[in-house]
Write a structure and sequence with these properties.
Helix content: under 10%
Number of strands: 14
Number of helices: 1
Shape: elongated
Largest sheet: 6 strands, antiparallel, barrel
Number of domains: 1
Strand content: over 45%
């Protein structure tokens, strides 16, 4: 009888399981997903920027992610396209009011026939500046300039390329 009692006690001890405490995991993914987005930003009843994206994720903190690319058209005061920006992917950081474009990044100034290419570019709209530490190529009216970084006004009217190289005509 003692053996049966002892076996029953042992089986009860080994059959008791620890209860697991489940930890809540906070969701950090997108709150909203937008497909085939086309948005226009205007100022004084004039379109200033057109934004196209195949998919956009919007997050709780106000950040936006454009994992399948971004296309922007900037218009002048006469409603003509002045500049076009394309990127394979982009991210908007709301807290910093800063954009990051990655992949094949291209900015074309239509009327000036200028183009900037790089793999990563940052834009701070409030400061009206663009910058990168990545390799850049700027083509303007037959000249080609290369460098290892860039600081510029957002309209490329004034820029500084670090470690510049290239071919260009010098007018005397």
């Amino acid at each position: 009888m003692n053996r049966v009692f002892f076996i029953v006690i042992l089986s009860l001890l080994f059959s008791c399981k620890k209860t697991e405490t489940k930890h809540l995991i906070e969701y950090t993914g997108p709150l909203r997903e937008i497909e085939k987005m086309e948005t226009y930003y205007s100022e004084n009843d004039k379109v200033k920027v057109k934004v196209l994206a195949d998919i956009v994720y919007e997050y709780k903190d106000g950040d936006r992610e454009f994992p399948k690319g971004l296309y922007l058209e900037f218009y002048n005061e006469f409603g003509r396209i002045e500049t076009v920006l394309k990127a394979n992917e982009a991210h908007y950081f709301k807290e910093e009011n800063k954009w990051r474009a990655r992949g094949k990044v291209e900015i074309r100034k239509i009327e000036a026939d200028e183009q900037l290419n790089t793999e990563e570019l940052f834009w701070k709209p409030a400061e009206k500046k663009i910058f990168t530490e990545s390799f850049v190529t700027i083509r303007e009216q037959g000249d080609v300039i290369y460098g290892d970084g860039l600081d510029a006004k957002q309209d490329l009217s004034d820029y500084n390329i670090r470690n510049p190289k290239g071919t260009f005509d010098v007018k005397e």
